[in-house]
């Protein structure tokens, strides 16, 4: 991630003091005063000089003060500067990599490895760990076709992925003509072709629950038919989350309303999956700090992610969700190395 033009125009002293302030705040969670910052920085400067630098950084939006007499603490922009510095100068510990490898061994099923990775991330960081399913394990709807059978029965021919075909017989409330069924299947194909079947099922259920009054007759009938077709799908998950309760112990996220919103996001997974999907096409470690995520529910949180690959192709994303006052120096290498190890373990299970 590149630093902004504003950041590169900071003097070396200002950059050093900002890095030191972020490290101090991450360590103890208290605003940092000028005297403490002089001592922690190791610079031969006066407290007055540091106060002037802090005033400049506050004006530029890197730090803020919770109240007049307090010291400074980093803003999201200040954390971003700190994180970009870490990423541009990263060098991971090979001993730590070897230790992680012992805890994520190949040999199990894919779901077991994904669960192990999410619990590993959560256990090592004490935040929430999340791993998306490999894309190739998802079942994409390519085409659905309906054919009339005797009585109130319809044959649904469902084509998944590239060539997997499944036949399902469903009971309807009345007989349907072939032309009617063709119209219904055309409508569903136009709406959902290419979607994972779990997402199709979820969308149909939500639409039937929330939007029935706004549907025209064709849409309502098509959705009712589609809901019957995909009703027997196993309610599999698009991602595995572990350690959500770790967040309850963090003072930064102790607000009950905030916690309710976060746990709702963990349960519904929609916003989280959209965010993780954005990381699948990006190389290296990706970090969203506070409002950078683009979803209000993650304000005050940071998400550190990395994609994992199978046979050289990125197929999923894993990461850690915690407060913006996160131990980035520990979390970033853990996430990066776990992604590498998960991909290697999955390749060995094939």
Based on helices, strands and strand pairing, what is the structural class? alpha+beta
Going across the major beta sheet, what is the strand order?
A: 7-3-10-9-8
The residue fraction in helices comes out at: 40-55%
Total of domains: 3
Radius of gyration: 25 Å
Order of helices and strands: HHHHEEHHHEEEEHHHEHHEEEH
Largest sheet: number of strands, sense, barrel closure: 5 strands, antiparallel
Number of helices: 13
CATH architecture name of the largest domain? 2-Layer Sandwich
Count of DSSP strands: 10
Query: How far apart lie the N and C ends?
Result: 34 Å
- Inertia-based shape: elongated
Question: Any low-confidence stretches, pLDDT <50, length ≥5?
Answer: none
Q: Write the CATH homologous superfamily of the largest domain.
A: GAF domain
Mean pLDDT: 86
Tell me what portion of residues adopts beta-strand conformation: 15-25%
State the name of the first-level CATH class of the largest domain: Alpha Beta
CATH topology of the largest domain: Beta-Lactamase
Task: Characterise this structure.
The chain contains 13 helices and ten strands. It is an alpha+beta fold and 350 residues long. The protein has three domains: 83 residues, Orthogonal Bundle (Arc Repressor Mutant, subunit A); 157 residues, Beta-Lactamase (2-Layer Sandwich), CATH 3.30.450; 92 residues, Enolase-like, domain 1 (2-Layer Sandwich), CATH 3.30.390. The strands form three sheets. Strands 7-3-10-9-8 form a five-stranded antiparallel sheet, sandwiched between helices.
